[in-house]
Amino acid sequence: MSENPNQNLNPNQDQDLNPNQDQDLNPASALAPELEERAAALDSADELGKLREQFVLDAGSDPAADAAGVYLDGNSLGALPRSVPGRVADVVEREWGQLRIRSWTESGWWTAPERIGDRIAPIVGAAAGQIVVGDSTSVNVFKAVVGAVRLTGGPEAGRDEILVDESTFPTDGYIAESAARMTGCTLRAMAPAAMPGALGPRTAAVLVNHVDYRTGRLHDLPGITAAVRGAGAIAVWDLCHSAGALPVGLDEHGVDLAVGCTYKFLNGGPGSPAYLYVAERHQGAFDSPLPGWNSHAEPFGMRPAYAPADGALRGRVGTPDILSMLALEESLKVWDGVSVDAVREKSLALTDFFLECVAAHVPAGSVTSVTPEEHAERGSQVALRCDGAAAVMDELIARGVVGDFRAPDVLRFGFTPLYVGFAEVERAARVLGEVLRSRS
After folding, report:
1. Is there a catalytic annotation at residue 238?
2. Which residue is catalytic, options 412, 415, 419, 427?
3. Which residues, 6+ apart, have CB-to-CB distance to 353 below 8 Å?
């Protein structure tokens, strides 16, 4: 028996369907039952499918049911793990309500940022002791970009340029621009694929999104990182749309610094704290632009002069947000025993199958995929360009298929392998076809 639990999850295997066909198929045609049967077979073979019961979801898991409960927006907000409410209640009622200040030590509140960082580490391919949890993604991007410039010596050492992904999430761009002004650097925006050719002796830092939030394109982390390091610069990766959906390999690929959120594929809850990765080789020299008492070598010494703590701890700033942090810690337990490689294989199978179902159910010419077909270039989402996309998504949500819209014309569907099944994927494409037909 293969060690790969998803060995049978390739929806393109032994099939005659042409995903590029021009037919305007009716969902009631002979093809629809075939897709439903294949979806049921794929769900039956899916060993990750049993994880779904650990999440609070609608009744969309019944293939015979209506489309209600198809949640394809885990790339914006992950579903609630069932064990989290009880854990949060205990934190509030017992740890805070009864133990009060004693919980900083007796309940492990003080060590939560690095302890939870060590839980995230294997999901993103990092050894323990390199990730600290806390603050928002935006704050951690600021720490990382300014810290990266300082690691190279910055303008004083002739390193006065920051490169940024031109399609980056807007906040990353805003912060990169501010960091450039604060450090005396210039900012250049460009496509990630062009970055290796643009590097030079003036490059200090490079900020890239691992997966494009609009299109789902997966950028070349190993290649870009190697090129950046070869040029003597520092690579900063934003993992918000990749961590928990595919292997990242921070240590394996020599990434310098990375940041990420925890409320998407890691299911930490709305506004759950982000994290900062500082490779061990950089920890002794990492100079955070936000020194706080929590990252002081002697936090309770109340010294007037700042002295940074050792290791990843110097990425901390102020008092940890304990309630949301411990909810995140509980949510990460669903990853116990889960292979990220198996998650990636299922993710690709889900997105392949969705594209196939869209080709079958959706009127020809009504949508265009802007997500790369090549697996090596695809994250765990599918983005479809569509006229009137905002209104289409509103109608989909009203009919129980939850994705999201990105201006000006993109329908975005995220696939969280821990709880999304193939029958749901087929139903989502079928409902999309029905909505588009009703508008024609």
Report:
1. yes
2. 412
3. 11, 38, 39, 42, 422, 425, 426
Given 264, 314, 344, 430, which residue is catalytic?
264
Residue holding tokens 């949301």?
A: 324
Helix axes 422-439, 389-398, angle to 10 degrees: 120
Residue 320 φ/ψ, nearest 5 degrees = -65, 145
The per-residue pLDDT for range 71-125, each reduced to its tens digit, is 999 999 999 999 999 999 999 999 999 999 999 999 999 999 999 999 999 999 9
The phi and psi torsions of 410 (rounded to 5 degrees) equal: -115, 125
- Annotated catalytic residue 263: yes
- Identified catalytic residue from 165, 172, 212, 238: 238
Residue of 11, 86, 7 lying closest to 360 (CA atoms): 11
- Smallest CA-to-CA distance from 356 within 16, 19, 2 is with 19
Q: What is residue 109's DSSP assignment?
A: -
**50 is known as an active-site residue:** no
What is the model's pTM? 0.92
DSSP 8-state class, residue 85? H
Q: Token pair of 126, please? A: 């990092």
Exactly one of 55, 71, 142, 169 is catalytic; name it. Answer: 169
Can 160 be counted among the known catalytic residues? no
The secondary element (H helix, E strand) that includes residue 433 is: helix 422-439
User: What strands lie across the sheet with 410-414, from one edge to the other?
Assistant: 368-369, 381-385, 410-414, 404-406
* Alpha-carbon span 190 to 240, nearest angstrom: 20
Angle at 374 (CA atoms; ends 368, 375), nearest 5 degrees: 115
Neighbours of 97 (CB within 10 A): 12
Choose the catalytic residue: 213, 263, 275, 415: 263
